[in-house]
Specification:
The protein has helices spanning 14-23, 31-41, 43-53, 65-72, 76-99, 113-116, 132-143, 147-155, 160-166, 179-189; strands spanning 2-7, 28-30, 58-59, 62-63, 105-109, 124-129, 169-172. By secondary structure, it is of the alpha/beta class. A 5-stranded parallel beta sheet has the order 2-5-1-6-7, sandwiched between helices. It has a two-stranded antiparallel ribbon with strand order 3-4. Helix 2 packs across helix 5 (76-99) and helix 3 (43-53) runs antiparallel to helix 5 (76-99). The longest helix has 24 residues, at 76-99.
């Protein structure tokens, strides 16, 4: 089985490319969605996060996301420790998920493919690239979030140039080049 890692910055269109791959029969594991679910349900994550951040981190309704955010926002050390708890569990979950797939190819979509180390468990990394201004415009509309907040999030991500240099393949989602032929060409290259 060939495992693909799909990455790109906020508003780049990695979810669109993941959807196109899915239309071609490539199952896609969405790391952001799965990590949120696991953070809420995994006994391993719950035990370790509670030990790190306190018993009040989880309520009868699940994870207290605001409390978690208050611990990690502006605190790189806590963010690193929390990620060191969550990322290995997501990695294990992805590995188990791939074994349950009938396809010869599968993918993981992750904005933090390289930062999380998920790139180590895939065979090919695919970056979806879009110009910064276009990314900001898309994210502002999609998330209904002020421009300044989107720019702050972008500035907290690995720069596009670094992702592009580390990726095996780049798809340009710049509203000038059609995505479908690029996705087809990528799949043919596998």
């Amino acid at each position: 089985m060939i495992k693909i890692g799909i990455t790109g910055g906020i508003g780049s269109g990695k979810s669109v490319v993941a959807s196109l791959l899915n239309l071609y029969g490539v199952p896609v594991y969405v790391a952001d969605t799965e990590s949120k679910l696991l953070t809420d349900t995994s006994p391993v994550i719950k035990e370790k996060l509670t030990a790190l951040l306190g018993e009040d981190l989880y309520t009868e309704k699940g994870l207290n996301k605001k409390l978690l955010a208050s611990h990690i926002f502006g605190n790189p050390e806590y963010l690193r420790l929390v990620n060191a708890i969550i990322h290995p569990e997501v990695n294990r979950h992805f590995s188990a998920w791939t074994k349950s797939q009938a396809s010869d190819i599968c993918a993981i979509e992750s904005a933090i493919l390289f930062e999380s180390g998920f790139n180590e468990v895939v065979d090919k990394s695919l970056m979806v690239y879009a110009p910064m201004q276009l990314r900001i415009e898309r994210a502002v509309v999609r998330d209904n979030t002020p421009r300044e907040e989107i720019v702050r999030r972008i500035n907290n991500q690995l720069p596009d140039e670094v992702k592009r240099d580390r990726s095996d393949y780049v798809i340009y989602n710049d509203d000038k080049q059609a995505l479908l032929p690029q996705v087809e060409k990528f799949l043919a290259s596998l």
